[in-house]
Amino acid sequence: MSDIPLFTPFTLRGVTFPNRIMLAPMCQYQAVDGVPNDWHRAHHGRYATSGVGSVVVEATGISAEGRISPGCCGLYNDEQVAAWREITDLYRAQGIPVFVQLNHAGAKASTMRPWDGGGPLEPGSSEPPWQTVAPSEIAAREGWHIPQALEVEEIAAIVSDFARAAERAMDAGFDGVEIHGAHGYLLHEFMSPFSNKRADAYGGLVENRMRLPVEVARAVRAVLPQNAPLLYRASCVDGEGGSLTLDDTVALSHALKAEGVDMIDASGGGIPAGMRLAQQKPVPGFQVPYAARIKAETGLATAAVGMITEAEMANAIVAEGKADLVALARGMLRDPVWPFHAAQALGHPEPASILPKLYAFYLKLAS
Questions:
Q1: 180: helix, coil or strand?
Q2: What is the mean pLDDT of the chain?
Q3: Is position 217 within any domain?
Q4: 275 pLDDT exceeds 70?
Q5: Would you put residue 259 in left (φ > 0), alpha (ψ -120 to 50) or beta?
């Protein structure tokens, strides 16, 4: 047992994380009709043996229309449940808690895969577009398709879709659920004054703009087992030119806590859509203050994400109480055994011990 903060266990409800390193969700855009396949099994197989303490799999549509692209995964039919179960089995065999990020892409749905340009699908293409929806008739980007503003009864149906997807997630073997309320997708669109111009109970003051995220959290919590953690990924602030503030997100976090959300995964940006974070050249750990403030003011557990690449920084975030978990994506793509190398860098007495026993056995022989 190590006394290095990054490698101490952490418990949410009935789930214990062996360490504080989380694999962040990474869209693969390789699904067919929302069904994960061999690519996903290979992708997740490498991380099931990586030494991470928890995993959130990619943004997964609560409906076919809620997917970002035709290549995105879903959890809206039984075939998808069965395919996901093969992946959750990989992580369960290694004692790694695994969560699914449930999403409705809103105005950013019906798009091409990033390497095909990432723009809106065009009529007449091999993958035809579908009607998108949003809080208001505001395109995600200039020149994109105009979404249809949701009617109140349609909002209620989306809440139900989130709840049904959460039930399917449990059938698929996930340990819990992360609700995607970030990166310019539907729940973030409702939260942001930039994209939400409604004049009804779902628009205007932050109490109204947070109404849908709160209703989704309430519905999902109601169908999850009591011991299953519920996470919420928030864009804590909009990107440059947006108008969502950290004050708004702290208020949302208080409300989500009252509904049984256990952790805020603190991200940012996505509205207005456009420049990627990599192009903005943010400094390492630039989003950590979001997680720190939410944790301090609400008492909720938080996960910090965003250019956390060095073991020393990751360990300090946990040691200083700024967040309970640190989440990595590109860092794990570059180095699939980043946790092992982090343990070495931090002076862990047995760095190989965080890996599966078979790997640890051989690495110890070579040391």
A1: strand
A2: 96
A3: yes
A4: no
A5: alpha
Mean pLDDT within 239-261: 96
pLDDT for position 125: 86
Distance CA 48, CA 98 (A): 10
Looking at residue 180, what is its pLDDT? 98
240 SS3 class: coil
Active site annotation includes 185: yes
What phi and psi values does residue 240 have, to the nearest 5 degrees?
-60, 130
The letter for the amino acid at 273 is: A
Total domain count, the chain:
1
Could you report the per-residue pLDDT of 185-213, keeping only the tens digit for each? Answer: 999 999 999 999 999 999 999 999 999 99
User: What average pLDDT does this structure show over 94-105?
Assistant: 98
185, 202, 232, 290: the active-site residue: 185
Domain of 300, in residue numbers: 5-330
Tokens of 8: 């101490």
The residue behind tokens 């149906």 is 157
On whether residue 357 sits in a domain, the answer given is no
What the block records as the tokens of 131 is 């009607």
Reported for 223-228, long-range contacts at CB under 8 A and 24+ positions apart, including other chains, are 223/163, 223/166, 223/167, 223/170, 224/166, 224/170, 224/176, 224/177, 225/14, 225/170, 226/13, 226/14, 227/13, 227/14, 227/15, 228/13, 228/14, 228/15, 228/170, 228/175, 228/176, 228/177
Per-residue burial over 305-331, b if 16 or more Cβ lie within 10 Å, else e, is bbbbeebeebbbbbeeebbbbbbbbeb
Task: Count the neighbouring beta carbons within 10 Å of the beta carbon of residue 9.
Answer: 11
Looking at the domain assignment, is residue 227 inside a domain? yes
Pair 45, 351: CB distance under 8 Å: no
